[in-house]
Design brief:
Blueprint: E1 3-8, H1 13-26, E2 30-36, H2 43-46, E3 54-61, E4 66-73, H3 78-88, E5 92-97, H4 120-130, H5 135-144, H6 151-164, H7 170-189, E6 195-200, H8 204-213, E7 247-254, H9 257-260, H10 273-282, H11 284-301, H12 308-324, H13 332-343, H14 366-376, H15 391-402, E8 413-416, H16 420-434, E9 440-444, E10 455-460, H17 466-473, H18 480-492, H19 500-511, H20 518-530, H21 534-550, H22 563-578, H23 588-603, H24 612-624, H25 630-643, H26 653-661, H27 665-684, H28 699-711, H29 715-729, H30 734-747, H31 754-758, H32 764-783
Parallel strand pairs: 1-6, 2-5, 2-6
Antiparallel strand pairs: 3-4, 3-7, 8-10, 9-10
Helix pairs in contact: 1-3, 1-10, 4-5, 7-8, 10-11, 11-14, 12-13, 16-18, 18-19, 18-20, 19-21, 20-22, 21-22, 21-23, 22-23, 23-25, 24-25, 25-27, 26-27, 26-28, 27-29, 29-32
């Protein structure tokens, strides 16, 4: 007897019932199921007495890519029913799909992701024919609420139609050829007894065709690695092994109905898992009645008024819609539409969410949110105690016990970071944080390496999903320190954003130097060399330099660990800054990056491969480059003045101010902002610092030339440039601004309070504009002879 193919929709109660009946009637020798073949040696583990839903979590990591994926199973998943019923019937049960690490699953985080996006045209036509809004409503209409009689034939027709008009991609073809090799091997080993094959309906027509024709069996579906489908000594296809040097594996994790729900972003199968669990256990009509009650109870618990009349109206509308649509039994969409019609009286911003797939939009009506929450359910799976756990789970449990961090739900912690035990406890909690393990969140503590805060506070949060998160984190390593370092390395490397290095660096410090692997440091150095924006690179430099100079808590002060990062960042920044071009305006992150270079050259010269004279020469070139942004030119001028080792050949700030004023008031304001960001104290005379050979700037000369230039500006030019000038002087603290105001009053021979001068009753820009407007009105009146006259 040949193979019997059942094409199913993942997580469909109707398909699960069909699989169960078929196993009982057919009594097959083999039951082959779409699922990860590498789990075949661990089916006893999978079939322990778990409280479903659970999932097979798979991970893969090499030097070029990292990937994770899930194969979820719940009570009414056809694949789960096939495993359970097949084992109970005495059949040999096997998974027959490629491992999740295989390139055929590239970009796919869910093994059972629906193929409907690839046959959308066919399902759209069917939706139009049956007058339904969505593929989910179509599926319910054709299968979930219809009697089970003839369902196998209807499924065959449905999947033949939708697959007949869709082109499988390279990955699906490779998977189908591999699964077909398993089917042929099972048929050959069955001795004439039947073989049952349970796969997603999209694959069923292709598998039937490949098995009938004999297929290529050589992996030619994706044109590569023809040895993958070789047969082992036992007659079954070999399971492909990961490439040399790659880390890959699979293990069981708890799952939840929330993760399984299409309305929270799940990519596959049926939406509303709580509702379909009721359908599986009690039938469609009982599930519909229960949903009505559940929604009303949820709304009343949240103090949303729902009267008995509303409930009666919802029930009546549901029954009417069921009859109008010709459903033999009440469908999920009948209940939801009936509830919406009875409970929602105001206008909606868009279509109801069950007319489509995907997460809820922001602003969804509260009643709709509660309806879908009731449909989704709150069940969380639980693994059998005998389920093997990754080594990381045991390591975390041991560390939490040793450090008295296993106080249970609701326990908060206040840690003294100057105490060795407190610091160790902090590192363990931070390692759990970077691995995404829920349960505790830090509410207070140092925000950067030189933050003078020596305590941390950790408060409890929901620990839902903690067991699964720990199991998934086990993909990064066997110990907590190793796993945290691997997770940080991945954040730094593959697909990391421009701001990743600084955050990773400080997180690595929080997690403890012992968790910093050589690979992480290598990734950080490599990432620094590839950054193209000065702002993020400046954050890395300031973070690492601050830790190297001032750290009192984490043990990095004056240590060699950060030397390579500091040197690499300075080299890269000087190169980027000299080539910087761009729009006008003040780029504060870029100015902070120049300031970080200044601090590195002044306070950590022994770490740098760039001499102070070289950095000064680069700064001088930038300051004289007319194509460079004005704020950067000002910052470079200040940097050059600070770093020069001999008397400068160029003029002081006053001469440069005169040159920049020719480019306009905005450009002058931007230039001053850059100058003040880098050398505020030096140019204002508030610091005792002098450049070499007594060549320090004369602050009085700078104030004088600025006063002269600004007073000479026409009114319109002054108003246009005032915002940029104000931004430049905002780099001075209030005391310094008061000193400058005092000097200006002295220059005019005015006796008064400079402090009062700075404390205006309104925005100075508004005052200046009001004065200009008043002057304009006066001049206009005078031009028409309407000015004021003496009485």
């Amino acid at each position: 007897m040949s193979a019997v193919f059942l094409g199913v929709r993942h997580h469909s109660p109707a398909c699960a019932r069909l699989v169960e009946r078929t196993v009982e009637e057919l009594r097959p020798a083999h039951v082959l199921v779409e699922g990860p073949a590498e789990m075949n040696g661990r089916l006893d583990e999978l079939l322990l007495g778990h409280a479903l839903p659970v999932a097979v979590f798979s991970h893969y990591r090499d030097g070029r890519r990292a990937a994770t994926s899930w194969a979820p199973l719940c009570d009414y998943s056809p694949e789960w029913v096939a495993l359970r019923a097949g084992r109970a019937a005495g059949a040999e049960v096997r998974f027959i799909d490629l491992p999740a690490w295989h390139p055929a699953f590239a970009e796919r985080t869910n093994r059972y992701a629906d193929a409907e996006v690839r046959y959308a045209e066919a399902t759209e036509r069917l939706c139009g024919h049956f007058a339904v809004d969505s593929p989910d409503a179509l599926w319910d209409r054709l299968f979930e609420v219809e009697p089970d009689d003839g369902i196998a034939e209807r499924l065959d027709a449905y999947f033949a139609l939708v697959r007949g008009e869709a082109q499988a991609d390279t990955g699906d073809r490779a998977r189908e050829e591999y699964m077909a090799a398993w089917v042929r091997a099972a048929v050959g080993a069955a001795g004439g007894r039947p073989v049952l094959v349970v796969t997603g309906g999209f694959h069923q027509p292709a598998l039937r065709s490949l098995t009938a024709s004999g297929g290529s069996g050589d992996g030619s579906g994706d044109g590569s690695d023809s040895q993958r489908w070789d047969v082992g000594a036992d007659g079954w296809p070999l399971v492909p092994s990961p490439p040399a040097g790659a880390d890959a594996g699979s293990f069981l994790v708890p799952y939840s109905f929330r993760q399984l729900d299409a309305f929270t972003g799940y990519q596959s199968g049926m939406p509303s898992p709580g509702y379909y669990q009721e359908v599986w256990e009690k039938g469609p009509q009982a599930a519909a009645d229960g949903l009505l009650r559940a929604v009303v109870e949820r709304l009343r618990a949240r103090r949303v008024p729902v009267s008995t009349a509303d409930l009666i109206a919802a029930r009546s509308l549901t029954e009417g819609l069921t009859a109008l649509r010709g459903h033999p039994r009440t469908a999920r969409i009948d209940v939801l539409d009936g509830l919406a019609g009875a409970l929602i009286t105001d206008d909606l911003d868009g279509p109801l969410p069950w007319t489509d797939r995907g997460p809820l939009r922001a602003g969804t009506h509260p009643a709709v949110v509660e309806m879908l929450a009731a449909c989704g359910g709150e069940r969380i799976g639980r693994l059998h105690p005998a389920t093997p756990a990754p080594p990381l789970v045991h390591d975390v449990a041991a560390q939490l016990t040793r450090l008295a961090l296993d106080g249970g739900p609701g326990r908060s912690y206040r840690l003294d970071l100057t105490d060795p035990v407190g610091l160790e406890r902090s590192r363990v909690l931070h390692r759990l944080r970077v691995l995404g393990v829920p349960g505790l969140v830090r509410t207070a503590g140092p925000e950067h390496g030189v933050d003078p805060v020596f305590t941390e506070c950790w408060e409890p949060r929901s620990s839902a999903g903690r067991e699964a998160a720990l199991a998934e984190a086990g993909a990064f390593g066997a110990s907590l320190a190793e796993a945290a370092a691997a997770a940080l390395t991945e954040r730094t490397g593959l697909g990391a954003g421009a701001d990743a290095p600084a955050g990773v660096l400080f997180d690595a410090v929080l997690c403890g130097v012992g968790g910093l692997s050589e690979r992480l440091l290598s990734e950080l150095s490599s990432r620094i060399g590839g950054l193209t924006a000065p702002g993020p690179l400046g954050e890395v430099l300031s973070t690492s330099l601050g830790l190297w100079r001032h750290d009192r808590v984490y043990g990095l002060a004056r240590g060699p660990l950060l030397a390579a990062v500091i040197d690499g960042a300075v080299r890269r920044l000087l190169w980027l800054l000299e080539g910087a071009r761009g729009p006008t305006g003040v780029d504060l992150p870029r100015l902070r990056a120049v300031a970080a270079v200044r601090d590195a050259v002044l306070y950590a010269p022994e770490l740098l491969g760039v001499a102070r004279e070289t950095a000064a020469a680069i700064a001088e070139r930038i300051s004289r480059d007319p194509a460079a942004p004005s704020d950067l030119r000002g910052a470079a001028f200040g940097l050059h003045r600070l770093l020069e080792s001999s008397s400068p050949g160029a003029g002081g700030p006053a001469e440069s101010v005169r040159e920049m004023s020719a480019a306009g008031t905005d450009a002058l304001g931007d230039w001053l902002a850059g100058l003040f960001a880098l050398a505020r104290d030096e140019v204002s005379g508030s610091s005792g610092h002098r450049t070499a050979a007594g060549s320090g700037p004369d602050p009085e000369a700078l104030i004088s030339v600025l006063d002269e230039l600004i007073c000479a500006l026409p009114e319109d030019a002054f108003l246009a440039g005032l915002p940029a000038l104000r931004q430049a002087f905002a780099f001075f603290p209030p005391r310094e601004r008061e000193r400058i105001a005092g000097r200006l009053l002295e220059r005019r021979g005015v006796h008064g309070s400079s402090r009062a001068l700075l404390r205006t009753t309104a925005d100075p820009l508004l005052i200046a504009r009001a004065g200009a407007f008043e002057q304009h009105v006066t001049e206009l009146l005078d031009s028409y002879g309407l000015g004021g006259t003496a009485a």
